[in-house]
Design the sequence.
């Protein structure tokens, strides 16, 4: 009688509790119907299917159903078929919701899941809470329920965007197989498709594009050739994403998909109207980081071919560095610490143990040490600028660790204030995202790993990449773009980890208000904004993390798409620096006079020749660009050709000074710097004249001091 407690039981309740179906039949003949409600519950709790079915066969039994019968039965772990039988009643169907559905999926109740999916209200919410029902079925290795859910377009669309996560790829392939097989047989089975099936086919096409496997070409073309599917190719099946298939094909450089889609007039016309057709000729030269950051969907967009090349360049550049640092430190038995980007971490393994490991295991150990160095930097940053709260007009510094935080013994109001301070602290949030366990993580987080009561994010899946990007962010030697130095890049990197760590805390929207507290309305529509819900950490999903990490280190030479404009700027800076090194006070007047003569008479004086860049200096620039931009420069014939042509001297242009004077701003270099202001001039401004300064003695000056 698990879960059922009551005194003064009626005869019908007694036989229901003990499953005495024969006695129930006798009672039913005597029309003993005083407590059908409790009898139903008792039979369900006792898992007495025969008694339960007899009760359901009673005329008008539906009028005796308790209000929460469905949720009670789900809570009591009643048999699958018993619950599915109950779902035949309209009153019970009305009690079904997404929570009941998730519970059925969680418990592996196949009959109940199928019965619930017959209810429209349940189908409409099959993907709620980040498709938690589908994710739970995958986590439970329940392929039957997972396959059932994948037949719903919203679920399939989600799964195919996250197909690299554990178990998704095979499930997707199994779901697609019968549809693709049918498409190869002819058009007959595609003549009377309902909207749901058409949309499912659309997302299958999207998945084939995303996989970008040439072996999928025939399947893709076959499915796209069906008129019912072809007519969807340019439409915004995903809200606000017209021509989504072509745009994705361009982004992942899927040639066969681009060619097939552009044969559809509606697709081509829409592409031309939006000017996206130009991207078929050349990859866009620069990434609009602001647009990516503001785009809610940017975290799930596919990396373009150029972005993948940039990422690989960074890996090729930094991976050998960290391997060398760790290996050398471990090999030196006298050294207690390993130093990575100025961060000291204690050795956790001996050289003998490390050296005996297979290559993959050694690589994992190295990345783990790199990640610990990253964590150490975050700890130091937190200690330098900790989160604080005010209690009784006193500032309280919040400790780094959870156990120390608990020891503060804060009351509920103080604790809420402290948690908000932690949640808004970027260094601490980034550290929590990279911690195992993360004691600040929500037990309801969509994407978490757990063991007992401990929870943490999926950061380990991206451990090696995070280390590489951290090395890139903290690299003080690589050079700058747009004045973004290592300090700026590190701040942006931490900010991105902060937003990954609290990704789904920003799911909510609210009306945006101005400084006066009034609603902001544009074109008659109330403007909304996303906001942090202030609850425990709810990190971003695996697939979303990939693109977020890529954009975490902006304006890094190896992670930015190299353009001709960037090469021109590098050339300007290099030449200007060269010119500046040859100008000093002893020759500035002569050079200024020579330049004025050249401007008047256009005759090149011999002194201009000293500014020519020798072959050695030109090679120095090439080597610098190779170190800074890696393969992007090394493998570009056009960039090298441009530089070579710019350095060529001709009969018309006989010296590099004339060639580069304008872009290097040579005339400005010849100007004398403004005079340095004295203390009194800085203090009183330009009203202080030289004669006043001359007449002031030391005593008078002392009277002017302000410190």
Sequence:
């Amino acid at each position: 009688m698990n879960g059922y407690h009551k005194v003064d039981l009626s005869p019908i309740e007694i036989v229901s509790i003990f499953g005495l179906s024969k006695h129930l039949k006798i009672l039913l003949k005597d029309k003993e119907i005083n407590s059908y409600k409790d009898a139903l519950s008792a039979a369900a709790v006792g898992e007495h299917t025969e008694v339960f079915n007899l009760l359901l066969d009673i005329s008008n039994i539906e009028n005796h159903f308790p209000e929460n019968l469905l949720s009670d039965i789900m809570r009591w772990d009643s048999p699958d078929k018993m619950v599915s039988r109950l779902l035949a009643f309209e009153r019970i169907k009305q009690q079904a919701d997404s929570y009941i559905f998730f519970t059925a999926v969680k418990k592996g109740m196949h009959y109940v899941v199928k019965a619930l999916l017959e209810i429209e209200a349940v189908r409409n919410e099959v993907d709620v809470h980040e498709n938690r029902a589908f994710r739970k079925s995958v986590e439970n290795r329940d392929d039957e329920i997972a396959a059932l859910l994948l037949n719903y377009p919203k679920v399939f669309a989600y799964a195919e965007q996250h197909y690299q996560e554990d178990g998704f790829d095979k499930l997707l392939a199994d779901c697609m197989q019968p549809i693709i097989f049918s498409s190869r047989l002819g058009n007959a089975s595609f003549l009377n498709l309902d909207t749901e099936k058409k949309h499912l086919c659309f997302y299958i096409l999207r998945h084939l594009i995303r996989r970008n496997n040439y072996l999928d070409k025939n399947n893709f073309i076959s499915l796209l050739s069906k008129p019912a599917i072809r007519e969807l190719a340019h439409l915004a099946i995903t809200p606000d994403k017209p021509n989504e298939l072509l745009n994705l094909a361009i982004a992942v450089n899927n040639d066969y998909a681009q060619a097939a889609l552009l044969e559809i007039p509606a697709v081509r016309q829409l592409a031309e109207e939006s000017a996206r057709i130009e991207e078929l000729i050349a990859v866009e030269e620069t990434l609009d980081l602001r647009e990516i950051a503001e785009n809610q969907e940017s975290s799930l967009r596919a990396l373009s071919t150029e972005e993948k090349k940039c990422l690989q360049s960074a890996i090729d550049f930094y991976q050998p560095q960290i391997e060398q640092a760790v290996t050398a430190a471990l090999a030196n038995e006298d050294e207690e610490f390993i130093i990575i980007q100025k961060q000291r971490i204690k050795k956790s393994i001996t050289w003998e143990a490390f050296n005996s490991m297979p290559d993959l295991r050694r690589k994992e150990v190295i990345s783990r040490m790199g990640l610990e160095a990253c964590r150490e930097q975050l700890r130091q940053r937190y200690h330098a600028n900790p989160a604080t709260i005010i209690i009784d007009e006193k500032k309280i510094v919040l400790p780094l660790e959870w156990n120390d935080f608990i020891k503060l013994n804060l009351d509920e109001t103080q604790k809420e204030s402290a948690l908000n301070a932690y949640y808004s602290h970027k260094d601490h949030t980034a550290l929590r995202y990279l911690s195992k366990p993360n004691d600040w993580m929500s037990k309801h987080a969509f994407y978490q790993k757990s063991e007992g009561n401990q929870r943490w994010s999926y950061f380990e899946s991206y451990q090696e990449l995070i280390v590489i990007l951290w090395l890139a962010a903290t690299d003080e030697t690589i050079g700058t773009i747009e004045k973004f130095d290592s300090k700026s890049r590190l701040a942006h990197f931490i900010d991105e980890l902060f937003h990954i760590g609290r990704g789904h805390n920003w799911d909510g929207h609210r009306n945006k208000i101005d400084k006066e507290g009034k609603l902001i309305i544009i074109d008659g529509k109330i403007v909304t904004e996303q906001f942090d819900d202030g609850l425990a950490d709810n990190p971003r999903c695996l697939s979303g993390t990939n693109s977020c990490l890529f954009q975490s280190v902006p304006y890094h030479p190896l992670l930015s798409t190299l353009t001709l404009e960037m090469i021109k700027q590098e050339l300007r800076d290099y030449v200007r620096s060269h010119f500046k090194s040859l100008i000093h006070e002893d020759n500035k007047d002569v050079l200024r006079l020579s330049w004025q003569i050249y401007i008047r008479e256009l005759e090149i004086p011999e002194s201009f020749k000293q500014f020519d860049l020798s072959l050695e200096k030109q090679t120095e620039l090439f080597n610098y660009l190779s170190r800074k931009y890696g393969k992007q420069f090394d493998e570009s014939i056009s960039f090298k050709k441009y530089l070579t042509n710019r350095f060529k001297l001709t009969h018309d242009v006989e010296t590099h000074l004339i060639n580069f004077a304008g872009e290097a701003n040579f005339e400005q270099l010849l100007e004398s710097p403004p005079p340095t202001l004295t203390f009194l001039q800085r203090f009183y401004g330009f009203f202080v004249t030289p004669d006043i300064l001359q007449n002031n003695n030391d005593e008078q000056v002392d009277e002017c001091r302000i410190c």
About this structure: The longest helix spans residues 305-331. Residues 564-670 form one domain. The mean pLDDT is 80. The longest strand covers residues 337-340.
